[in-house]
């Protein structure tokens, strides 16, 4: 037969010699089904392990971030309470003592917008000082289709 023609059905075709340099997708067409399944199972397993490891790291990162934010909120709440006590003690000192318009109070004062007092604003805000319980990670299902270029190596894709 001719070089660019199928020996069986005589349709135009191309002959490719199989070697280590042949495209892996073409090599896969000539592999045994069992070895092909083992290859893809190994690659899928590596991808799954890689994703699970990074999911855990991300969960730990956000757990730490939540803890830091809760601590910051707790400190801010304590600071607001402290400033309210100072403010109320200053108000009682000014209301009981003789003060004139030219006398400046000592210590920090809070800025008050017109029409609302700081205590009204803070009292209306409820803050839970108890740390939130750690949530169980949601079970994430994988994508319905996995497309592989090459398996992950040394914790890296690509």
Automatic annotation (TrEMBL):
Q: Which residues cross the membrane?
A: none
Instruction: Supply the alphabetized keyword list.
Output: Meiosis
Region (Disordered) residue ranges read 87-158
What InterPro entries does the annotation carry?
Zip3/RNF212-like
Q: Where is the composition biased (Polar residues)?
A: 87-105
Cellular component, GO, one term = synaptonemal complex
Q: Is Ligase there in the keyword field?
A: no
A GO MF label: SUMO transferase activity
Q: Which GO terms describe its biological process?
A: homologous chromosome pairing at meiosis; protein sumoylation; reciprocal meiotic recombination
In terms of PANTHER family, this protein maps to:
E3 SUMO-PROTEIN LIGASE RNF212-RELATED, RING FINGER PROTEIN NARYA-RELATED
Name under which the protein is recorded: RING finger protein 212
Tell me what organism the protein belongs to: Bos mutus (wild yak)
């Amino acid at each position: 037969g001719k070089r660019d023609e199928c020996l069986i059905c005589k349709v135009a075709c191309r002959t490719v010699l199989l070697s280590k340099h042949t495209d892996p997708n073409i090599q896969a067409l000539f592999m045994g089904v069992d070895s092909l399944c083992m290859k893809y199972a190994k690659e899928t397993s590596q991808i799954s392990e890689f994703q699970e490891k990074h999911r855990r790291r991300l969960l730990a990162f956000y757990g730490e971030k939540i803890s830091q934010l809760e601590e910051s909120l707790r400190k801010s709440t304590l600071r607001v309470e402290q400033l309210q006590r100072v403010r109320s003690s200053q108000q009682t000192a000014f209301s009981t003592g003789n003060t004139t318009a030219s006398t400046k109070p000592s210590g920090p004062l809070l800025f008050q917008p017109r029409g609302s007092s700081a205590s009204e604003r803070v009292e209306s805000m409820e803050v839970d000082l108890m740390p939130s319980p750690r949530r169980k990670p949601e079970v994430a299902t994988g994508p319905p289709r996995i497309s592989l270029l090459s398996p992950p190596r040394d914790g890296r894709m690509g």
